[in-house]
Amino acid sequence: MEKEDLLLVKGMQFWAKHGYFPEENTLGQRFVVDVEVSIDMSHTCTTDDLTGSLSYMDVYAIAERVATKEQYRTVQRIAQRIADEIIAAYPIKQVRVTVKKPSVAIGGIVEYSGCSIVREPQKN
């Protein structure tokens, strides 16, 4: 088994005005965001100290800011922006961001629609 530490923040819910159609941008809707970050947490595990490490609060703050302060047409772009912010701020190995739209107008009943992306920092 490969060693991998994962920081998980799941089920973050935000009311925001993202969408492809004008009504979505006017009325807004609920979005659910899950973030999984592959990051070395050995220092925090041994010292019991979050100093200099990525925390749940950091992930939540980034997701909340992107979801509620920025505006996009697609869930794919929301997911990319969250991933970009996490990668820019922390020494991570990989991040998976899932953005779900529980109320989607597709002419049928679904639990949600959405996307999940996986990104890694660019190697120089």
TrEMBL record:
Its EC number is 4.1.2.25. One of its GO terms (cellular component) is cytoplasm. InterPro entries: Dihydroneopterin_aldolase, FolB_dom, GTP-CH-I_C/QueF. One of its GO terms (molecular function) is dihydroneopterin aldolase activity. Pfam families: FolB (PF02152). Residues 7-119 form the Dihydroneopterin aldolase/epimerase domain. Pathway: Cofactor biosynthesis; tetrahydrofolate biosynthesis; 2-amino-4-hydroxy-6-hydroxymethyl-7,8-dihydropteridine diphosphate from 7,8-dihydroneopterin triphosphate: step 3/4. Keywords: Folate biosynthesis, Lyase. The keyword Nucleotide-binding does not apply. It catalyses: 7,8-dihydroneopterin = 6-hydroxymethyl-7,8-dihydropterin + glycolaldehyde. One of its GO terms (biological process) is folic acid biosynthetic process. It is an enzyme of class 4 (lyase). Catalyzes the conversion of 7,8-dihydroneopterin to 6-hydroxymethyl-7,8-dihydropterin. NCBIfam families: folB, folB_dom. Belongs to the DHNA family. This is 7,8-dihydroneopterin aldolase. It comes from Neomoorella glycerini.
